Amino acid sequence: MLVAACVALGLSLIAVVAGDATRPAAGWPWVLLGLLAACDLLLSWPRRRVVTVEPLSDVFVGEENQIELTVNPAAPDMRGELDWPDGLRGPKDFNLSEGRVQIPFRATRRGTWVFANLWLTWSSRLRLFEFVPKMGFDLQVAVVPNIRRVQSGEISTTVQSRLFGVKENRVIGEGTEFHQLRDFVPGMDAKSIDWKRSARHRSLVAKEVRAERNHHVIIALDNGYQMREEIADLPKIDHAITAALATAWAAAIGGDLVGLYAYDAQPRLFLPPEPGRTAFARLRSRTAELSYESVETNHTLAMTELNARTPKRSLIIVFSDFVDTISAELMVENVSVLAKRHLIVFVALRDPILEAQVNRAPQDMNGVAETVSTGQLLHERRLVLERLHQLGITVIDAEPGEISTRLISTYLEIKAREMI
């Protein structure tokens, strides 16, 4: 339309400048433009369009999915644009010329995210106008913690093969919990003979034991502002929740009781240890509801409260983070107090970008300064983790993709060695 108006203006100016004989014709370009515009509007007046979208099931945080969108009727050059909510990332605009499109997106935050409007854009038949209506449609996308490894059966297979399959001897015959009596046969350990019952039965009877079950496993999630830092395009707290749920499922398969404790400036959530898949369903539901906090963590209050709520010796898995030795001082002190009664596993998330920056040769003086400061941060981080290790705390420091595997292996080793 702007180009046509410029052409009409140019013709009018030529008619005016040419002389008195052509001045009456100066208005004809505008009359023609008005007629063309009227015809274009009559030919292209927007018809009522209907937007439909396929409902989505729950989307795992950190994974990709797609929205199937249909607009009827479509236009040859129609494009669409969505206002993406904070927890989803997708393309700014997309082609709707065929009326149907699959829009890929990635879930980056837990929560229920709502799309309110769709902006459509298309040109009129004569290209004089551009229509930009706002179409309302209702779509909610629920982003939940990632339990892909649980659904795949990988964890169940690993735990069952370790505890009840290939390593059956670690479960029966080497534990501390009484299992059953059986006749003593040559080749069995003489220490397993129950002499009192053998005297009563007038034959040698051996006592068979197995590894103790029904241990308490508490997952403690630090949900302070430092856990909002992103690693691999996801906040640390989401990586922690993914690993925590994987370990909770492994513990449920292993016959232990699993509980949850979340805290930031104060204790926020405590679920007492429960057995089986019911406990896992509760943990999944409550972790999905955890908000992204912007407050500093109070480790003193959190660890004191947790110690008071868990009188029985338990395996406590603490997911937390720190910046330097000064900020970690209170955390180390309070975790060490907790370790006097319980078995502690401390989980920290390593940032691969920082590791790569230290190993990369700097190109200028700014790069040298960044490398030195990053190296200092990593050095202080190692000092804190070594101090935790010296206090008898099991430390897992790995990249996000390795945390779940390392943590489940640590849990199985602790269970096999009966350290709880």
The number of helical runs is 12
- Assign the CATH topology of the largest domain: Rossmann fold
What value does the Rg take, in angstroms? 33 Å
Strand content: 25-35%
Q: What class, by secondary structure content?
A: alpha/beta
CATH superfamily of the largest domain: von Willebrand factor, type A domain
Report the major sheet: 6 strands, mixed
CATH level 1 name of the largest domain: Alpha Beta
Distance between the termini: 78 Å
* Tally of distinct domains: 4
* Total E-strand runs: 20
User: Considering DSSP H and I runs of 4 or more, what fraction of the residues is helical?
Assistant: 25-40%
The second-level CATH architecture of the largest domain is 3-Layer(aba) Sandwich
Compute the average pLDDT. Answer: 83
Gross geometry: elongated
- Name the poorly predicted regions: 166-176
